[in-house]
């Protein structure tokens, strides 16, 4: 119910003198419905003088009466003017009883013609005292997007019926192409922003020209091809004929100064008596007067070393790696932080035979080819160099964006080698082409080691991302991924003599053993502990028969374990600083070579 107060000065006494109930009785109408109809008729026929302040009440009454007359059968009586004060305390108050449905509750008030469907005199859309209340479904994401756009650019979008209009600075919106704070406002995609798909080359017809047929391997128009067809065919022909491109050795000056050399200025120093003996044999040939059979398998019985028999001194800084000459072990290659690589005699005079100069910073890793004629050196100066072992010539040099930590030749093809670096990837080079031919980029941190297994068809990589990955050579897809929450980084690796297992130096002070075949599973029963190597890449080593495994530690000690029982059998104090690498002589099976950060190399028997 709504209460409308009407004030009248002319008709006040006349209205009070005739009560509503009495007027209804005079007309012979009884009941509430009759009273409402009588009041409605009385309100329409009786002239009432209203003040301007309540003129709206008359308009409301007229409108509702007209609405009642439009369709009287659909509704109950809509309007009735009755006495609002039954006690008669104030005869100026009129009660307006309204019973509209939802349609008329939101219909704008107007004149009688507006209620009947004519032109509206008023267009107010308020459905409450303060305004209009309506229920809407809003996408919070779009609302926040448009709000930020309005704050940032001064314009936003809104829906006006089925159309989308711009609110705010329309000129700026049109000038900017409709771009808001988070992207484009419209759904139209700018054709210029779409990436242009490369166009495929013609695959060719295998029947018309079999040599030019590319099939599904056809490249894209405009792509760079490293090797053209003629060069590829020539390379294949040379490989079939067994002809390899020859290297032009770099002649070193006769009296070069000892010291680090800048990149591109590689040189070598020979320290022996003569590079060839009286029979014309090079100094890298096997010695004949040592009493050691370098062609045999060596003694079957192996004894653990007990005493020091020789010390090689010549490096002026920490030694990072040592490698014995393949098969024979009569020469020893060493890499140091003094940026030099040296090669030593293991027998005869045990002197330094040659120094290889070319790196400007510490040398991190070295590795021979299978025949020992060449070797790789990886340095902190971000270069990898290939050297001729005999002449000391630098055959080729390769730069890396970041520090290379490991490098190794492919045992099946010595013209190709792998380099693992701090760039989180493994790069495959072809020394015949002098360029990168493949990349393996699945690791998430620096690559620490690279180890070929399965006769060179696969290789294993370990990284600071605490994972082990196995790859098929030439295919940059991981075939085995080993990662465990309890696994630590593996910093150094060695392969067992039977080639069925490999041992990795884990930085949680233990040596882990994994298979080199099939599923590459961990050998849980073979874990070697006791030494302290946390933070040091101490490379483990094996005895020639595989009965013992050894490793240095941070205190300069050399640990020996039994391979079958995994028990420590001996600890030998060897150096005053970290023992970083060790190697067992292949033909004198009771002798071991060790190197340390105290810049010395020692031979033990």
Output the CATH homologous superfamily of the domain at 305-604: YVTN repeat-like/Quinoprotein amine dehydrogenase
What percentage of residues falls in helices of 4 or more residues?
Answer: 10-25%
Average predicted confidence as pLDDT: 78
What's the Cα radius of gyration?
49 Å
Give the distance, in angstroms, between the N- and C-terminal Cα atoms.
Answer: 115 Å
Strand order of the largest sheet: 6-11-10-9-8
Separate helix tally:
9
Number of strands: 34
CATH architecture descriptor text of the domain at 305-604: 7 Propeller
Q: What is the name of the CATH class of the domain at 305-604?
A: Mainly Beta
**Low-confidence runs:** 1-29, 47-57, 64-85, 110-123, 184-189, 243-263
CATH topology of the domain at 305-604: Methylamine Dehydrogenase, Chain H
General form:
elongated
Report the sheet-strand fraction: 25-35%
Content-based structural category: alpha+beta
* Biggest sheet record: 5 strands, antiparallel
Task: Report what the structure shows.
With 605 residues, the chain is α+β, with helices and mostly antiparallel strands. Among the domains are: 2-115, no CATH class; 305-604, 7 Propeller (Methylamine Dehydrogenase, Chain H), CATH 2.130.10.10. A five-stranded antiparallel sheet has the order 6-11-10-9-8, with no helix packed on it. A four-stranded antiparallel sheet has the order 7-34-33-32, with no helix packed on it. A four-stranded antiparallel sheet has the order 12-13-14-15, with no helix packed on it. A hairpin with a 5-residue loop joins strand 28 (541-542) and strand 29 (548-552). Residues 1-29, 47-57, 64-85, 110-123, 184-189 and 243-263 have low confidence and may be disordered.
